[in-house]
C-alpha cells in the first residue's frame, strides 16, 4: 500500500467521540485549506457509521460554507433524520472553531430490483493506451508553472490519467469537457462503504476545472480564485475505487462568477456507477 493511500484510509477512519459525534484530522501537507473531497469523504464516513450495514449510500448533497483549517481537527455531528425500512436519511455538520464549515445530507437505501437503463460510456482510449501519470507529468513539467509542478509531483492517493492535459500549460480555449481515468494508487479494503467514501473524495479533484476550459484557464492560474460551493453525488452500481473508473466531465454553464460541472463515472465494462454535479466559484481577478 502506498503511503498516500495509507494516509487517505487514516483520515477516513474517524475517531468516535460520542454517539453520532466524530472527529477527523487532515494530512499536514502544507495546504492552506482543507481539500473539499476530504470533508465530503469524512462526512460520508460519519453518516455511514450510524446506519445498518444492509443499507448503502445512494445520494449525498453538500454545501461548503467556510474554508477548512488543516491545522485543527474537524468535528462531525450526525443528525439521524429518518430511519425507514427501505431508506435512511442523515444530516452531517462539519464544525471548526465553533462554526459550521460544511453540511451534507445523505440518503441510504436497502437494495431493491427495478427498471434499468443508463447512458452510454464515451468511446475514449483505455488507461493502458495513455501515458502513465509519471510519464505525463514529466512530459508537461518543463513548460509548466511551479505551482502545477508542485501539485503533480507530490505523492497522492488518487492516480489520474487525463486524456489531455494541454489546458494546464497553455491559454488555448477548449470545449468545456474532459475525460480522466481515476483510481486509488493501491488496493483498498473490501468494505463497499470505504470505496464510496474514496470515490466521493476523488470526485472533487478535477470537476471544478472543467468550467474553466472554455476560457483558456485552469484552477492553477494566478488570476483565478476557485472553490467548491456545493457538491451532489448519486451512486448507481457496485464498483471498486482501486480499479480504473472513467470520469467523464462537462460544464453546461458558467456565469456570475460561478460554474456548473457534471461528471459521470463508469466502470471499464461500461457500467455507469455514479454521477456527480458541482457548482463552483470561479472568480477572476483584474491584477
From TrEMBL:
Please tell me whether the keyword Lipid metabolism is annotated for this protein: yes
Per the record, what are the reactions this protein catalyses?
a fatty acyl-CoA + H2O = a fatty acid + CoA + H(+)
Q: Which PANTHER family match?
A: ACYL-COA THIOESTERASE, ACYL-COENZYME A THIOESTERASE 8
Q: Name any one GO molecular function.
A: fatty acyl-CoA hydrolase activity
Family, similarity comment:
Belongs to the C/M/P thioester hydrolase family.
- Enumerate the spans annotated as Acyl-CoA thioesterase-like N-terminal HotDog domain: 30-109
EC class name: hydrolase
Signal peptide positions on this chain? none
Species annotation: Cohaesibacter celericrescens
Subunit notes for this chain?
Homotetramer.
Name the chain's protein: Acyl-CoA thioesterase 2
**Would I find Cell wall biogenesis/degradation among this entry's keywords?**
no
- Kindly state a single biological-process term from the GO annotations of this entry: fatty acid catabolic process
- Which Pfam family, an example, fits this chain? 4HBT_3
Q: Which InterPro entries match?
A: Acyl-CoA_hotdog (IPR042171), Acyl_CoA_thio (IPR003703), HotDog_dom_sf (IPR029069), TesB_ACOT8-like_N (IPR049449), TesB_C (IPR025652)
Q: What is its EC number?
A: 3.1.2.20
Q: Which residues form the Acyl-CoA thioesterase 2 C-terminal domain?
A: 150-281
Which CDD domains does this UniProt record tie to the protein? Thioesterase_II_repeat1, Thioesterase_II_repeat2
Stored NCBIfam families: tesB
Amino acid at each position: 500500500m502506498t503511503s498516500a493511500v495509507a494516509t487517505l484510509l487514516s483520515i477516513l477512519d474517524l475517531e468516535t467521540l460520542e454517539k453520532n459525534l466524530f472527529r477527523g484530522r487532515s494530512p499536514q501537507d502544507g495546504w492552506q485549506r482543507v481539500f473539499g473531497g476530504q470533508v465530503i469523504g469524512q462526512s460520508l464516513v460519519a453518516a455511514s457509521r450510524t446506519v445498518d450495514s444492509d443499507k448503502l449510500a445512494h445520494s449525498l448533497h453538500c454545501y461548503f460554507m467556510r474554508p477548512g483549517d488543516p491545522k485543527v481537527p474537524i468535528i462531525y455531528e450526525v443528525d439521524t433524520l429518518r430511519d425507514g425500512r427501505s431508506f435512511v436519511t442523515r444530516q452531517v455538520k462539519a464544525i471548526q472553531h465553533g462554526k459550521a464549515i460544511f453540511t451534507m445530507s445523505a440518503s441510504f437505501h436497502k437494495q431493491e430490483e427495478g427498471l434499468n437503463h443508463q447512458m452510454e460510456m464515451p468511446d475514449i482510449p483505455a488507461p493502458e493506451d495513455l501515458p502513465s501519470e509519471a510519464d505525463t507529468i514529466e512530459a508537461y513539467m518543463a513548460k509548466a508553472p511551479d505551482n502545477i509542478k508542485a501539485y503533480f509531483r507530490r505523492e497522492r492517493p488518487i492516480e489520474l490519467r487525463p486524456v489531455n492535459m494541454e489546458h494546464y500549460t497553455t491559454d488555448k480555449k477548449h470545449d468545456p469537457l474532459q475525460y480522466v481515468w481515476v483510481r486509488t494508487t493501491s488496493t483498498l479494503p473490501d468494505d463497499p462503504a470505504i470505496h464510496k467514501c474514496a470515490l466521493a473524495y476523488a470526485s472533487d479533484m478535477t470537476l471544478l476545472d472543467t468550467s474553466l476550459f472554455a476560457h483558456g484557464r485552469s484552477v492553477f492560474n494566478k488570476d483565478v480564485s476557485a472553490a467548491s460551493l456545493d457538491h451532489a453525488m448519486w451512486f448507481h452500481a457496485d464498483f471498486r475505487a482501486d480499479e480504473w473508473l472513467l470520469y467523464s466531465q462537462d460544464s453546461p454553464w458558467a456565469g456570475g462568477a460561478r460554474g456548473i460541472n457534471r461528471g459521470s463515472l463508469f466502470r471499464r465494462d461500461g457500467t455507469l456507477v455514479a454521477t456527480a454535479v458541482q457548482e463552483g466559484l470561479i472568480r477572476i481577478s483584474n491584477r
